Amino acid sequence: MGMSGVEPAIVQRAREGDRDAFAAIVQARWGSLVRLARSVVGDGDAEDAVQDALVVAWNQLSKLRDLESCAAWLNRIALRTCLRRARWRWRWLPLEEAPEGSVESRPEDTIDIQRMLLGLAPRQRAVLHLTVIEGMTDREIADLMSITAASVRSHRRRARQSLERIHQQQQRVAAGRGS
Amino acid sequence: MSKKPGEDWEDAWRVWLDRPPRKSPEQAARAVSDRLSSSKAPANRESWVWLWRPLVAVAALLIAVAAVWLWVPWKEQKPKVMAAANELSLPSLGDDVLVIWLDSETPLYLTLASDPDGRPAESNSGGLL
User: Fold this and answer.
1) Structurally, how many domains does chain A consist of?
2) How far is A179 from chain B (nearest CA, A)?
3) ipTM of model
4) Among A77, A107, A143, B55, which lies 20 to 30 A Cα-Cα from A101?
5) Where are the domains of chain B?
6) pLDDT digits (tens, 9 = 90+) for A91-133
């Protein structure tokens, strides 16, 4: 799964209200959660979304039964938070109006990652991230996102089709600039 | 070995994701802790405690439905009218008399007229005589 775990003893202390223990969990999971959030909500919103998710996690720590699965549980909360944010933005902020340069993209970059991701539906971004970046299986992704494995495959197929189309578009634009 | 079209994009994506976050883990932990100071500690909040609001809402709804079921007058009106109608001693009615109960004490008799041959009279207006 490629996601480092968190010591159950620390999780137990956090459940008992120890904020230092929770801070240790935040430190351990921060980088991984921000990577996931970047793919789903983009660079500008990622860190805020993860902080929101961590506050939610703190308030729901008593619901966590399996201390060993704290990392997966945090991923689920972060993903849900990011999808909620992204759905709103995706609906109200069309691709043409996406903020260019909100990512530190350099003019010489031929692949504008954030712009490509914005061309996908939020769930497609999440599925693609968990597949390509985290190397998770369809079953693991389905469990994490509370959808079926068939839906996972469908989201991934449509995501790849959209990416190919957007990539070709970007290459045509780049070629047009070059000539 | 040449790369497939998607692989360029995936490599670029990984590089993009690997950039360090603006906040370091320590800064992030501090920022989250600051936000937690306004919320209560999660300790001792068992899952059933979160259920009290929905439970109270469901109980209130059940009480309201029971109250409506027990006390609304319309529920008893219809049987009362029928009982009163049965208790009244009606004169013997012919086949050409129609009785309509306006309420429990007021019957309305309609007599269908017939012509001398015994056939129902034809109405010019097409309705009741």
Assistant:
1) 1
2) 22
3) 0.79
4) A77
5) 50-87, 89-129
6) 555 444 444 444 444 444 556 788 888 889 999 999 999 999 9
